[in-house]
Description:
CATH superfamily: HPr-like
CATH architecture: 2-Layer Sandwich
Number of strands: 4
Helix content: 25-40%
Radius of gyration: 11 Å
Number of domains: 1
Number of helices: 3
Shape: globular
Strand order of the largest sheet: 1-4-2-3
Distance between the termini: 33 Å
Amino acid sequence: MIERELTVTNRLGLHARATAKLVQVLAPFRCSVTLTAKGREVNAKSIMGVMLLAAGQGTQVRVRAEGEDEATAVEAVAALFERRFDEDG
């Protein structure tokens, strides 16, 4: 199991487009991935689950992956967060 703390830095937070991008990035991975924010834990591969976090800009999020490609999955999520979901040109 691998965990990493991330901060939502894009201006609009985890809105529909950003959430869809996150789920798309995680789709090829075989491990299970969860996101935890504001005391709520959700399946990071579920658009509806991630949307329920209502994670705005500045929200601390913990990503946890467990399974055969867990390290690569966490790195892919971290890279997406660092790129601000490719939104803030």
